[in-house]
Amino acid sequence: MNNPKLKGYGFNPSEQILIGYLRDGTLFGRDYLVQDIIVLSHDICSYDPWDLPGCDSVTPNDSERFFIYPKTYKYANSKSKVIGTPTGQVPNSDQRQPMINRATKNGRWKVSGVRVNVKSSDETKQVIGIKTRLYFKHNSCPNKTSCVLHQFQLVGIDPCQDKYFLGKVIMKEFKPTNISSNNINDRISIPEVQVELGPEPLVETEVTNEYEW
C-alpha cells in the first residue's frame, strides 16, 4: 500500500512567500493557504528535531519541513524588554531584544552567522521580515549536527500580535542512536558553518519571487 503524501513534501516556497504566510496568519487570522505548513501548539523547542511531526520520515530528496509555532521566552519578563519599531524597520543595536528559549530536551538550537533582512520584491524593497539561521547541537556532542533551522519573524507589528515564528527545518540525517561524544561524528555529518557569538548584526539581502505585497 502506498504511503499518503506527507505535509511539506515537494513544498519549496521563497523566503518572501513564507513571510507572507506568517503575516496573514498572525495579523489577519486567515486560514493558511497551504497545508504544507504544520501548525504546532507548542514552541518548536518542545521537541528534539527528529521528534517533530514528519521529521522521522525525511529522505535525501525530501529533507525540509515547515512549521508555525508560538514564541517562548527564556524568562517570564523577556517580552516586556522589547522596544517597538516603526513598520518596515528592524531593531537596532540600542534596542534590547527578548531572550528566546532555544533549549530542547536533549540539546539546543544555536544561532549561526548573522540575521538577514527579507525584503519585498517590489520597487520599495521594504523590509518585511528577518531570517535567523540556527543549527542543532546535542548535549552529548561538542560539535554541531546537520539539523538546520531557518527561523522567520515579522517586523514592525504590534508586540501584542508578534507571537509566532515560521520555521524551515532541514534534516539531513535521521535520528542518531546511542549518541555519545565518542561516536557522534560517525553518525552525523557536520556542516561547515562559521558561528559568530555575541550581538547578531543584520545584513540586508534581496530575494525575489512572485508574492505581491
Automatic annotation (TrEMBL):
GO terms (BP aspect): regulation of DNA-templated transcription
Subcellular location, record wording: Nucleus
InterPro entries: NAC-dom, NAC_dom_sf
Keywords: DNA-binding, Nucleus, Transcription, Transcription regulation
Pfam families per UniProt: NAM
Residues annotated as domain NAC: 5-172
The protein's name in its UniProt record: NAC domain-containing protein
Organism (species): Gossypium aridum
